Amino acid sequence: MLLEPPDASNDEAMLAARMALGDEQAFVTLFRRYQGPVYRFVRQMGGSADTAEDVTQEVFIALMESSGRFDAERGSLKVYLYGIARNLLRRRIRKQTTHPEVELDQLLETTPAAATAPDALADLERAEALTSLRRAIVSLPPHYREVIVLCDLHELRYEDAALVVNCPLGTIRSRLSRARRVLARRCLVEMAAPAHDGAPCPPRRCLA
Q1: Distance separating alpha carbons of residues 122 and 139, to the nearest angstrom
Q2: What does the alpha-carbon distance between residue 89 and residue 55 come to, in Å, rounded to a whole number?
Q3: Would you state the pLDDT for residue 54?
Q4: What residues contact 101, with CB distance under 8 A and at least 6 apart?
Q5: pTM of the full structure
Q6: Least confident of 31-40, 117-126, 183-192
Q7: What are the backbone dihedrals phi and psi of residue 68, each rounded to the nearest 5 degrees, phi first?
Q8: Cα separation values, 146 from 85, 143, 151, 178, Å
């Protein structure tokens, strides 16, 4: 008899309930599971490593202090944590006098490691293309960048992205459509501009 795999949402709800009752191991399990994704989301949206570390810590403090607010029927715990992170980050940005700089190396995690011939040239071209794509994403307005980060980089469903951003599903669809068009145009600008670090962004990746 085949056993069905455990439902991830049920597992999250159980761990959250245990954490609310003071189970430290449940908190540790959730922290280890989601600290990385939350950190990457914050850094991709907000900039420095210090900001990402601080906000990520605040997210899990908020989770620990108000675990009863998580409702597994509304969405996954990761989506809930992204929503907290987004709100905390927006508050920080509003207090800043200058716009935060997003570090390119955190926007995509697929930069290949150094390789030997005959793959070295292909890997170099791919790394250069990713750099161009990063530049184009960084240049997007925040409300476009966040839907690209959520839906394309973190591969959230539109419904989950709508929960994070706290807006209607149709808004996510329209913003993502516009964001991808803007991103494609900016990738084309990268193609036309003199290469700083190498090859331009491939259009097919920008439209993905």
Answers
A1: 26
A2: 7
A3: 94
A4: 47, 48
A5: 0.75
A6: 117-126
A7: -65, -15
A8: 12, 6, 8, 12
**Where are the chain's structural domains?**
8-95, 108-206
Dist. CA 121–CA 88, nearest whole Å: 42
pLDDT tops 90 at residue 37: yes
| Terminal CA-CA length for the chain | 41
Q: For residue range 108-135, what is the model confidence (pLDDT) as tens digits?
A: 554 444 445 557 666 666 666 677 777 7
For the record, the structure tokens of 104 come out as 């390119």
DSSP type of residue 199: S
Structure tokens of 93? 């940005």
CATH number given to 108-206: 1.10.10.10
Which is higher by pLDDT, 31 or 128?
Answer: 31
CATH number of 8-95: 1.10.1740.10
Q: Is the dihedral of CA 48, 51, 53, 55 positive or negative?
A: negative
CA distance 138 to 45: 9
**What pLDDT was estimated at residue 68?**
79
Q: Are 145 and 164 in contact (CB under 8 A)?
A: no
pLDDT tens-place string over residues 95-111: 875 555 555 555 555 44
Query: Alpha helices, DSSP H only, in 21-157?
Result: 24-46, 49-65, 77-95, 120-138, 142-147
Tell me the angle at which helices 77-95 and 24-46 cross, rounded to the nearest 10 degrees. 50
What is the C-alpha separation between 33 and 23, in angstroms, rounded? 16
